[in-house]
Structures are given as structure tokens and as C-alpha cells.
Amino acid sequence: MRKATWGLLLLLTCAATCDQSGQNQDGEQKGPSRRGHVSVVVVGSTGDLAKKYLWQGFFNLYASQVGKGYSFSFYGGGLSPDGRGTPLLFEILKSQDCPVDVSDERCALVREQFLRLAQYRQLKTEEDYQALGQHIETQLKQEGMVEAGRLFYLSVPAFAYADIAQRVNRSCRPPGTAWLRVVLEKPFGHDSNSAQELATQLASSLKEDEMFRIDHYLGKQVVSQILPFRKGNRKLLKSIWNKHHIDRMEIVLKETLDAKGRISFYDQYGVIRDVIQNHLTEVMTLLTMSVPKNLTDCKEINRNKLKVFSALHQLDMPSAVLGQYQTYNSEVQLELNKTKDHFSLSPTYAGIAVHTTMPQFDGVPIFLVSGKLLDERVGYARITFKNNVFCAQDQTSITCRPKQIVFYIGQGQLQYPAILVSKNLFKPALVNNGWKEVIENDDTLLFGIPLSDYYIQTPVVQQEAYTELISQVFRGRRDHFVSAESLLASWKFWTPLLNSLKHTFPRPYPGGAANGNLLDFQLQGREVRFCSEALVNMIPQEKTESFQVMQGKYRSADMVSAWSKELVERLAHDLQEAAEESVQEGTPFHLALSGGSSPLALFKQLTQHHYAFPWWNTHVWMADERCVPPNEAESNFRTIHDHLLQHVHLPYFNIHPMPVQLNQRLCVEEDGGALVYEQDIARLVNSSSFSYVLLGVGFDGHTASLFPGNRLGSSGERLVALTESPLKPHQRMSLTFGAINRARRVSVLIMGKGKHELVTQLSRIKDTPDRWPITKIQPVNGRLVWYIDYDALLGQ
Question: Where is the signal peptide (predicted)?
């Protein structure tokens, strides 16, 4: 057996709870770190990633740390036999560049030693991994070396992770106290379920602290300094890093290249899964999370990231705009051997607006944008601030210019990584002593502003992301890696949007400068839309008959019909019109809402498009409620709160939940909850006549919580009563027919194909309240309007 050559490497000095060296949380040395031999195994060692980045990262680490305490050996693993893989590996290793601070003479010696430390091994079967494990053990015994640990870098497709992890665990796990670290490359699944499945499979072979899920964006020099910048300038940022001062955040990654050569991967994933769910989302968490007390404490960082995910508003189809460069489909047909009639819906461009419920950033849009074949290659995160200064004469004054902080990740007009702060904001401190201030600036404009308007700092020495991350893996630093919890939280956030967009046709764009403003989009409420109409369609589609909003009669009352989207828009318009009319008359608008899923689309329409709705003079009441605590998911009030009330500015005392829980009991007759609510109505609502009552209809004909067979005749003039539902939870509280029929206006909303049979049945029957309670809704002095979508009305 070839005798191993000793190489000296890296004394671990990381101060973190997640650093697996011999230091405590405060960075104080507990004692000498365990020194010894480290075996590095790169699986997939001759692939593109290994060729471009990984071996350069390992060589840089070796070259910079020779003589500092550790010996090691490198193994390049692959599916090819040794005879074929060895020359490929050494061709790659010989081409590695030395770091800029290493002289040519020393570089030659370091490279020679690096090559002598390396060997290729076929890693294809269980027996291959057993042989590798035995080889490492034999080498350690022959050389009399103490083992520090083993580092496996899996530069292979994700579907192979579970099998390789299992083989590493069975055959290559180091004995005793030596550590095992396994690096995994994205993608970590393609949705929430696949990510969970992969996490479960890996957890059966590896411990969480043995896995290093790498997102190379976290190793970018600027990205890695976002938290240090925020902490180092916390006194200056404290008063402005919030919704009162921040206008918007933009996180952008633009590419000029197409997807050629990656189509087999890219067409399965698209731009959102490829870079937005991971790279841009990680940057978003760094900008919005609470700054940890200890910047190297991965546990605190992970907790703070999870808080960010838990506060994000759920995304759906209107949250995104999609594009696809025009030649993409022909590339798919060529590389995947598809026929000429095959059309791919995978987007190559996406613009997404994210919002959060975090009080600090509530209402601040966060734009995540990425695409291929765009006008420039650039990555940045830009925070633009509101400017409340008015310059009466000199509009060019520095105080009137835009205020922004830019984390410029690289490429683009600057061509170097940098952090830029507008001079009319503050002068920032340097993030660390490895950075320098840029004093001399040329006439370059960044976002239309000359560089002289910014304070600029940049790394003294530029370093590739993989070099930094490989160093951190070796040192056991986990603060720039993705935890299982954070990964699953991210997929949980993104999967609903991805599902909603599965059948969406992306807007075609020509690519490069020719895109013009074709991909520009604007924010409308929480929705985003392209600013201009598309000039062409991706796929010629047959013309379909289009129905406008129609008015007619249903059960002798007025009826409005349309497709669901237009119907909800019309109902929201009519509701606002009724509210404005009430306010103009000098009376509050008293709105009673029923439970169920039908009103959710209406709530969304109101919150995102009806900013002029007079909420300040509106009272929201409940038409019915389930007898459950108001914070439970089954509560009608919880639904109305989550989808409407928390998104509008409604005075606190104008919200009237039904008192189903009194004396720590639910809907007990003796507690008088129904009477309490009735008294509130009589006290606040003129003549106990609501301005507007919105109802739905169940499949059994019930409305509010007035069910078939309920005997409310004995309630007399009561406005509120306890009722029984045939479904759990059985106990309910509801407005009575008397209360509803006193209203000035009652609307009944029915949507969906599933309600077609019900709508047909109701159109044929007479008033039979015992069997069909909805038929007793007949306002005495008010107006009844049915809002029925075409799916429910026509069954098609």
C-alpha cells in the first residue's frame, strides 16, 4: 500500500455552539482541539461542480493551512473504474490555481504534495464503500495516526443521497470520538412532501449535526456579511429598519445565459425551485430575521429563521408573474427528444411579492426576482427607504436623492462584491477587518445614482463561495448551512404557490436587451401583474365563449351571475357601495358575516383591492358561530379574523364576536350568551336592523346555523339563539330568521359545481323552512340578492 504523505492543516478556532471544536459558546478555548488525520472523500469527483469549484476549494484550504496541525488525504470517488477515473481526476487536480498570497515557488511545492495526497477510487457498490472504509482504517494503523474525522462531499444527484448515506453509515463511519461530516448539495426535494421524505431517509443513516446542506449563496462574501452588517450598525439601523421607513425590499438574481445543457434538470424544476426557493429565500430570512446575539450560534440563527417563515403570508397564483424565453421550448424538444407539439410550462423567469405579518415589516413588499436570458448577470439585495424630504429648488441635493442599502453580491455594473449605503442615510462601520472602504469611484451609475452618492465597502481579497464553505465544514461551523427544520419550513411556504402555478402559461420573452419592459410587473394590493399586455401567446388556444356579469331573477328575488372571479369582484363592489351609502347617511355600517369557505374569496378581494372601504365606520358582527374557543381553527371568528380583520384597519370596539365561551364554558343556556349578544345588537344597531347580512347555503339548505328541523318558533322575537347542527361541533349560536329578515340588505353567495344540484332544487321548491331553512330568508323591508357563479348555476 502506498504510504500516505503527511499534510498539515488547520487548527480549529471557531467560537460557536455549532462549532464541533473544543470551544464554548463564548469563544473561549476549553482546551486544545483534537488533532489528527482527516480523510476527505468527494463522491462525484470528476463532475462539473467538482471540476469548477470543489477541488479548487479543497486545494485553497490545503494551501493556506499547511503547517497548522492536521494531516489529511483526499479521495476522489466516482462510478467509473479506477483506470478510467484516475487520469480524469488528476487532470482536474493539476489545473487548480494557487491563492493570490502564495508565491509561484511555494505553489509548485504545495501542488506536488496535494497530488501525492490524492487518489481515485471507484465508489459504485456496497463493497466499494466497505473497501474504502477498510483502506482508511489500514492507513491510519500503518502510519500510527490518530483520526480527527472524515468529510464526505456528495456531488451527485439528490436521488442518490439516501443510498450513499446508508453506505457511508454502514462502512465508512469513523470509530470512537472522530467526527463524520457529510455535505449535501441542493436540490433537497422538489416540494414539501419530497423534502420531508428525503429528510426522513437521511435521518435513518446520519445525525442532523453530521449533515451540512450547502447553499453556496450563503458562502458569498456579501451574503455572509448581512447579519454582521446589521449587528455592527445596529444603533444606526434600529430606528429605520422597519415598516415606517422601509419602502420595499428587492432580492434579485439575473442571468444572461440560457438553460442549454441543463434542460433535463431545469425542466423538472424551473426558476422558482432552482434559485428562488433556496438562494433568494435564504437572503430574505437574513434581511428580516432578528439579529442573533451570537452570530455563529446556528441554533439561534435557525430559531430566528423559523420565526420568519411562520410569519409569512401564504402565496398563491396572483403572488407571482412567470416568463419563459422564447427559444426554451425548442431547446426542451431537442435535449429531451420531445415532439414538435410538446410545450413546456417550466418558467425561466419569475417575479414574486412576499409579505409578512411580522409587526416590524407588516405592509413592506419583498420582491424576489430571477430569470435566465436577461439583460445582465447580477445578484443583489436592495432595501429602499422612504424619503420624506421635499427640496423646494435644488432637486439634485443629496438629501432628495433615493435612500437605499444595497448588498451587491457580484457581477453587473460594479463587477465586484460590495455593500453600499446612501450617504443621506448614515456612514456604516466596516463589517470586519477583511473589508475596506472604496474611496475612488468612476462615473458608473448604480440604479441611476452615481457611486459617489454611496459609502462603499468591499472585501480586501475576493474569495469563491465554495472555498469559504468548505473551510467552514472542515472547522465544524454550521451557521452558514441549511438545517432540516429551516429547509422543510421553506418548502412548506413555497409548495402551495408551486402547485397553484402548475398549469400557468409563462409569458414568452425574446431574451437580453430585447426584453425591454416586457417583464416589468407592478404590485396591486398583495398581487403582482405585468405592467404591459403580452403581445404573443405561448400556445394558440381555441376561443372560448365569455360571459359577462348577468342579472336576473332567482326565487322571485334579484340574482347576479358571473364566473367566480368576476362574481366576487361584483359582490365586493356592491358591498362597498352599500357601506359608503350608509356612511353618507350618517350611520355606521353594520355588517353581519356567516361562516364557511364561500366568503374567503370575498375577504381576499376586499383586503387587496378595496382600500377605500370605510372600515373606520364599519361594525363587523357574526351571523353564526360554532361553540368552540375563538382561537381554534373551527371557529368562524378565527376564520374571519385570519382572512379579513387582521388585514384591515377596523377599530377594535367595532368587532363583535359571538360570546360562545362564558364562565369557562361553551354555549351553556344558563350563561345567557345569546341574550348578551342580542342586547349588544339592540344597543348598537338602529332598530336591530343590520345594514348588510352575508349568508351562504349548505348542501342541506341550512343558512347561518339555522338547520333543517331546528325549532325556533318558540324564540318569538329573539334575535339570537342556540341551535343544533347535525355535524360536529353540534352546538352553535346563530342570528334568528327574525334578526336576518330585519336587515336592509341580505346577500346569499353560492359558488362551485358542487352546489349545482342544490341551486336547481331551490329554484323548483316552494317556501318550506323546516326542510329548506334558506327559503325563510325574506327581508321584511330590505332587499335580498342571490350571488351565484356559473359553475353552481349551470353545472359547467
Answer: 1-16
